[in-house]
Amino acid sequence: MSVIKEPDQTLHHVLDIISDGVWDWNIATGQVIRNPGWYRMLGYEIHSFKQDVLTWENLIHSDDHDRVMGHFEAYVQGLIPEYNIQYRCLKGDGSFLWIEDSGRIVERSAEGSPQRMIGAHTNIHAQKTLQQKLEEQSKLLRGEYENLDHIIQERTKELDQLNQQLARKVEEVEMLASRDALTGIYNRRMFESFLDIEIKRAKRYSQPMCVILADIDLFKHVNDRYGHSSGDKVLVEVALTLQQHLRESDYLARWGGEEFAIILPNTATKVAMETAERLRHEVESLVTTEGISVTCSFGVTQFHQKDCGTSIFSRMDQALYMAKDQNRNTVRLIPPRPEVRA
């Protein structure tokens, strides 16, 4: 006699069998559950990623990212009636797969805010590839050259060479434009750009974020006593010490002079204070290659939903001033003012 399986168990088997990638986002907790078909479709080990939205966002092709985020945010905010979009996702082998992403908000809070959204990723790569081939063939048929294939190959080779040269130049220019020439860490311009991105991300996913501003105490005395060359070496070694004790997801930049700014994405205030205290201790324990010891003061503030770059800059500067005013070599926190709170 056959036994009828429980509905939940049957659904579990169905989700395991189907080739489409099904996802279930709990907006309140940030957790995203994906079925095995999602991993198999993209060529990853099953359940090899963190169960959060950043996993999905980081797989989107850079040329498609802004378009997808704009569509996603418009649907979540109720500006459009449906969430359905086609884009490319990074596979485990480094190639990209065309998928169609469809989803729907299925639960809302009493106030009407989205609480849960489910959807599916469907593999449309074959259709897209066929469409692209048909478009290419159509162009060839409209060509007016007898040796079109040869001409295309030659032009493609020339363009590839030019693109490689251009890419190297762009990389060099971006390196010079984004990095501090002395310490090699990000410069202030890049820090402001990263902060703008992380503010949008924190607002989009209702995630915490903190920012730290650090300043080497009495740095003028170092320059006066040991000379500016030694002072530069101190800046380099302090920057390296800070970098070594931050996560890969954190951002470190030279804010100016002897000041360093740090972004801690998806980080609550308690963890940020612990991080600042750990960094303070590491700098205090540092003895540079020239035998110079220094300390740092740290100002910390956390992000709130109505924050902008200017309000965060202002608070982290005030927090640092408080730390400097209270005997230096310390960590101080300034939370958002009441009018900034969401």
From TrEMBL:
<dbReference type="InterPro" id="IPR001610">
    <property type="entry name" value="PAC"/>
</dbReference>
<protein>
    <recommendedName>
        <fullName>diguanylate cyclase</fullName>
        <ecNumber>2.7.7.65</ecNumber>
    </recommendedName>
</protein>
<dbReference type="InterPro" id="IPR043128">
    <property type="entry name" value="Rev_trsase/Diguanyl_cyclase"/>
</dbReference>
<keyword id="KW-0175">Coiled coil</keyword>
<dbReference type="InterPro" id="IPR035965">
    <property type="entry name" value="PAS-like_dom_sf"/>
</dbReference>
<feature type="coiled-coil region">
    <location>
        <begin position="145"/>
        <end position="179"/>
    </location>
</feature>
<dbReference type="GO" id="GO:1902201">
    <property type="term" value="P:negative regulation of bacterial-type flagellum-dependent cell motility"/>
</dbReference>
<dbReference type="Pfam" id="PF00990">
    <property type="entry name" value="GGDEF"/>
</dbReference>
<dbReference type="GO" id="GO:0052621">
    <property type="term" value="F:diguanylate cyclase activity"/>
</dbReference>
<dbReference type="InterPro" id="IPR000014">
    <property type="entry name" value="PAS"/>
</dbReference>
<feature type="domain" description="GGDEF">
    <location>
        <begin position="207"/>
        <end position="336"/>
    </location>
</feature>
<dbReference type="InterPro" id="IPR000700">
    <property type="entry name" value="PAS-assoc_C"/>
</dbReference>
<feature type="domain" description="PAC">
    <location>
        <begin position="83"/>
        <end position="136"/>
    </location>
</feature>
<dbReference type="InterPro" id="IPR013655">
    <property type="entry name" value="PAS_fold_3"/>
</dbReference>
<dbReference type="InterPro" id="IPR029787">
    <property type="entry name" value="Nucleotide_cyclase"/>
</dbReference>
<dbReference type="GO" id="GO:0043709">
    <property type="term" value="P:cell adhesion involved in single-species biofilm formation"/>
</dbReference>
<dbReference type="GO" id="GO:0005886">
    <property type="term" value="C:plasma membrane"/>
</dbReference>
<dbReference type="Pfam" id="PF08447">
    <property type="entry name" value="PAS_3"/>
</dbReference>
<dbReference type="InterPro" id="IPR000160">
    <property type="entry name" value="GGDEF_dom"/>
</dbReference>
<dbReference type="InterPro" id="IPR050469">
    <property type="entry name" value="Diguanylate_Cyclase"/>
</dbReference>
